[in-house]
Amino acid sequence: MKKLIASIIVLAALPGGALLAQSITGTWQGALQVPQAPGGQLRLVIKISTTDADTLKAVMYSIDQGGQPMAASSFTLQGSTVKMAVAGIGGNYEGKLSADGTSIAGTWTQGPQPLALTLKRATNETAWTIPEPLPPPKSMPTDAKPEFEVATIKPSKTEEHFSLLVNRSGMLNTTDTSLSDLIKFAYDVHPKQISGGPAWLESDKFDVTGKPDTAGIPSINQLKVMVQKLLAGRFALTFHREQKELPVYAITIAKGGPKITKEESNPNGLPGFGGPPQRGFRVMNSTIAEFASVMQANFLEQPVVDQTGLGATKYDFTLKWTPDPSQRQLGGAGPEANAPTGPDPDAPPDLFTAFQQELGLKLQSAKAPVDLLVIDSVKKPSEN
Question: Which of 198, 158, 159 is nearest to 179 (CA)?
Fold first, then answer.
């Protein structure tokens, strides 16, 4: 699971009556149960107040992750229903305010697995201490050629779900990760571009922790090279490449040009992706080629190639669509949790329409020569 609440979240609320606003203003706190987090949980504090215009605003702190700020896209209170969308991390919260106004019982959704989150109204005596925000992490030198100084590979626990994260120190942590997942990430290939390999290529799942030998947050290319070295060293992976023309999806620019926002504040930072399609799949600090790689690895049934010509420019955007049965969910998790079972008049469009309407891009079927990664030999990872 991607780093969940890395920061303060400032929430813009819709207008509401003063009585309704007063019923929810104050300090709220609760914990998400996250097995891969230190202590198995992430504690959240949300401070909600009213503006001079009688609208609601809130600030949320993840006190176990340093309290860095991140803006959310919406916050509403209608009757007793609380809804919050945090586009910056692809997260959504929906809950019910109790009749006595002391708790909100709800669910946080970010990726395929929803998590229960009950918020309690805090007092001066019960309120958790909010830490000072941590300084922004430093990037790894661009000329560094890192590898993992220490790496552990263990069989995954059955209750875990797919995640691939890099923390503030630059350490890689994955859960429920197959050899195929690691190859797809390290070499930017679709499953159909992987040929050969053992029967356990997809079925055996691992948790991987890797500490780089160089300080700082690696770039996406540095991270991929480190995983490539891990595959060669711990899985004894050897392969050769062949080229073959295959059906692909090509991303091109639609008439009228792109509708996406350039991200220029973090040129060496890692891209970020998260959120279920029907609520909004959030793309942060990503090139179109990196976005294509995530789409082919996690959602689409054939390779995706970037033919936009937008190169190394990075973008922030949200893509909301209704998946069809041929499209996988992030991490191969199957149908989205809580997805409607029948026709929904308010459902977002299909993926191809969403690309054009929301991004100013086109996703269309084509044929193109692509690299095949043909596995020559591989073995289960060596003991830690």
Answer: 198
